[in-house]
Design a protein that fits this description.
The structure holds two protein chains of two kinds.
Chain A (H helix, E strand, L loop, with lengths): L3 E4 L2 E4 L4 E8 L5 E7 L6 E7 L2 E5 L6 E7 L2 E7 L7 E8 L10 E2 L3 E5 L1
Parallel strand pairs in A: 2-11
Antiparallel strand pairs in A: 1-3, 3-8, 4-5, 4-9, 5-6, 7-8, 9-10, 9-11
Chain B lengths: L2 E3 L3 E5 L4 E8 L6 E6 L6 E6 L3 E5 L2 E6 L4 E6 L8 E8 L5 E3 L3 E6 L1
Parallel strand pairs in B: 2-11
Antiparallel strand pairs in B: 1-3, 3-8, 4-5, 4-9, 6-7, 7-8, 9-10, 9-11
Classes of the chains: A mainly beta, B mainly beta.
Chain lengths: 115, 109
């Protein structure tokens, strides 16, 4: 049990669908992250929220839209995705952003397939 | 650019010792992390180095040389459950975390 939960665990969607991924952390952390993990590629950081404010957006296409209503919850809204967006989407949280206490705790991920 | 280099795959024998290397080129340095990721699971934190030297934690140790842009993860008394991918990640001067592609470690009996 990692203290970071993600739903759904698996998602299959068509290119015209709209869906949302949800992440919740029960660790009292201040920073939350969305990552994309594709086979044999490094983890790709998508978005970072620190104290509910977005601090990083790594040139992510606008078809991915994050939302952080409070420091415990993070959403990733998806619309008009492409097949190359199929991947494992990981959420993580850390006590602080940067430095020793930026050790990240990951959720189990959502396996997304775009058809 | 910024990049992290690790071997793609390594094989070792149960009970032996293995060293996984990581070299990095980043804009500044504010710490290096090692994570373990079993197939189909999320990464879990193993170690953090910010000063030169060796940090030991049970069967796992991590070494850092900032002048050489180099780190290694040393795993002793290998067990079958150590079969996993090991990810090296570096925090740069902007506190951005740069990830390596990971080293898949295969343990054979």
């Amino acid at each position: 049990e990692t203290g970071v939960t993600q739903t759904p665990r698996h998602l299959v969607m068509g290119m015209t669908n709209k869906k949302s991924l949800k992440c919740e952390q029960h660790l009292g952390h201040n920073a939350m992250y969305w990552y994309k993990q594709s086979a044999k590629k490094p983890l790709e950081l998508m978005f970072v929220y620190n104290f509910k404010e977005q601090t990083e957006n790594n040139s992510v296409p606008s078809r991915f839209s994050p939302e952080c209503p409070n420091s415990s919850h993070l959403f990733l809204h998806l619309h008009t995705l492409q097949p190359e967006d199929s991947a494992l989407y990981l959420c993580a949280s850390s006590q602080d952003y940067g430095g020793r206490w930026s050790e990240q705790y990951f959720g189990p991920g959502t396996r997304l397939t775009v058809t | 650019g910024q990049n992290i280099d690790q071997p793609t795959e390594m094989t070792a024998t149960e009970g032996a010792i293995v060293q996984i290397n990581c070299t990095y080129q980043t804009s500044g340095f504010n710490g290096l992390f090692w994570y373990q990721q079993h197939a189909g699971e999320a990464p879990t934190f193993l170690s953090y180095n910010v000063l030169d030297g060796l940090e030991e934690k049970g069967r796992f140790s991590s070494f850092l040389s900032r002048s050489k842009g180099y780190s290694y993860l040393l795993l002793k008394e290998l067990q079958m459950k150590d079969s996993a991918s090991y990810l090296c990640a570096v925090t740069n001067s902007n506190y951005q975390l740069i990830w390596g592609a990971g080293t898949k470690l295969i343990i054979k009996p």
